[in-house]
Amino acid sequence: MSQSVTTLKTETRTKPERPKLWKVILLNDDYTPREFVTAVLAAVFRMTEAQANGVMLTAHQKGSCVVAVYTKEVADQKAQDATDYGRQYGYPLAFTTEREE
Ligand code: TYC
After folding, report:
1. Domain boundaries, the chain
2. Is 27 in the pocket of ligand 1 (CB under 6 A)?
3. Is the separation of the CB atoms in 67 and 101 below 8 Å?
4. Is the distance from CB of 64 to CB of 75 less than 8 angstroms?
5. Is any atom of ligand 1 closer than 6 Å to the C-beta of 28?
6. Is the CB of 92 under 6 A from ligand 1?
7. What is the C-alpha radius of gyration for the chain, rounded to an integer number of angstroms?
8. Is the CATH code 3.30.1390.10 the one for domain 21-99?
């Protein structure tokens, strides 16, 4: 009589983790000209002038505005680039990053 071997395979499926995302946040200040903020947003975050103007106005009126969401490395780099841009012209323009819930 031939022998047969049965093996049972258990497969554990784990849902792939969603990559954690980070928000880039624009902070209002009293000194940076509005047009400059709009230009930086358009250049660094590849927004249209109209989109950039809307984000600038929200930060101006509310104190801050979420600009975009990226992986941590990209968010940190963009926030740094945009902040540096203002610094080059002597403006206190500031961007921060915050983990998305
Ligand atoms: N509040 C600035 C002004 O009145 C304009 C400004 C808007 C600056 C948004 C920063 O994130 C900002 N000139």
Report:
1. 21-99
2. yes
3. no
4. no
5. yes
6. no
7. 23
8. yes
Cα(63) to ligand 1 centroid in Å equals 9
Q: What residue owns the CA closest to ligand 1's atom 12?
A: 28
Q: Whole-model pTM? A: 0.85
Q: What tokens appear for 97 in the block?
A: 């990053």
pLDDT tens-digit readout, 32-53: 999 999 999 999 999 999 999 9
Q: How far is CA 46 from the centre of its chain?
A: 12
Q: Is 101 exposed, middle or buried (0-12, 13-18, 19+ CB in 10 A)?
A: exposed
Pocket test for ligand 1, best of 25, 26, 28 (most atoms within 8 A of CB): 28
* CA-closest candidate to residue 52, choices 82, 73, 31: 82
